[in-house]
Design a protein that fits this description.
Layout lengths: L8 H27 L1 H14 L6 H7 L11 E11 L2 H14 L3 E9 L5 E10 L3 H9 L3 E11 L1 H27 L3 H33 E10 L13 H54 L1
Parallel strand pairs: 1-5
Antiparallel strand pairs: 1-4, 2-3, 3-5
Helix pairs in contact: 2-6, 2-7, 3-6, 6-7
């Protein structure tokens, strides 16, 4: 067996000093990378341009590798109903109850009344898509169905596209925030703040579009128009009685009096003029003739 040679203290001390020097060198290098203005200027500017909204390299690289999973088809359902009912307020209350029981709510409402007194109400109902057919059947059964139209629009591709863009824009905003934390020059900070504001504005617009799509695909829209049923006229009796004859005779008598009054009114001006002329003739011309006769 070979005896183990003892380690010299000089070599051990030299090794410790070398390790400490390497550690200090690494720390100083890291500090210069994060604190040096020339090192932070170029990367910050290149990262900001590379991840701009026009060409999102960082965000697309992170989100493009993930394919969104389709959990179902996204469809926007809308319908329009025109129903004629006997009592419009009662039918409207029933429609509200049906909608609320299905988990929906009542939107815009407009009520009008025509010169004949017929009431008409137009109301917009929002109901969950799973209760769409049930509510639609209940509403059209509340009276006589006059008109019905329905529409289904598939927006699955649009929903997937907006969701992907939202994820990409969020990653882009997060990357700009990281660059702001690493930047030390004031010019870099100002440039990154402007870029961050622009990307946050784009993100808010995408989130609003995403929320609108979620609302329209989760809740169906039903526009219900309720109109009052016109009152039915009583059937006429083909065999008139004494009352009918009396009413007819009275009507004829009133009509004759009306025409006589009209004729009298038309003749009255001429009669007044004729009476005036006769009065002048009797007062002025007649006495002169009498005197001439007596002289003869």
């Amino acid at each position: 067996m070979h005896a183990r040679r003892p380690v010299r203290p000089g070599r051990a001390v030299a090794g410790i000093l070398l390790a400490a020097a390497l550690a200090l060198t690494g720390c100083s290098g890291a500090g210069s990378d994060s604190g040096g203005s020339s090192a932070a200027d170029g990367p910050a500017r290149s990262e900001a341009k590379g991840s701009a909204p026009g060409g999102q390299k960082d965000a697309s690289g992170a989100a493009g590798n993930r394919t969104p999973k389709l959990t179902g088809t996204d469809i926007i359902r809308t319908a329009s109903l025109t129903v004629q009912v006997r009592d419009v307020p009662k039918a409207l209350d029933e429609a509200r109850t049906t909608t609320e029981n299905a988990g929906g709510y009542v939107g815009d409402e407009t009520t009008t009344r025509d010169p004949q007194g017929h009431e008409r109400t137009r109301v917009v109902l929002r109901v969950p898509v799973e209760k769409y057919d049930e509510v639609l059947s209940a509403l059209q059964g509340s009276g006589r169905l006059v008109e019905r139209t329905s529409k289904a629009e598939d927006v699955t591709d649009q929903v997937v596209d907006v969701d992907s863009r939202v994820r990409s824009q969020r990653a882009s905003v997060a990357r700009i925030r990281e660059l702001m934390d690493r930047a030390t020059k004031l010019s870099d900070v100002v440039e990154l703040e402007g870029e961050l504001g622009s990307r946050q504005s784009d993100l808010e617009a995408l989130l609003a579009q995403q929320k609108s799509l979620q609302d329209r695909t989760s809740l169906a829209t039903i526009t219900l128009s309720l109109s009052g049923t016109p009152a039915k006229k009583a059937a006429k009796d083909d065999n008139p009685g004494f009352v009918d004859a009396l009413a007819g005779g009275w009507g004829a008598f009133v009509t004759m009096l009306r025409w006589l009054a009209v004729a009298f009114g038309a003749v009255l001006p001429f009669a007044a003029v004729a009476a005036l002329l006769a009065l002048v003739w009797l007062r002025l011309l007649r006495p002169g003739r009498r005197e001439s006769g007596e002289r003869d």
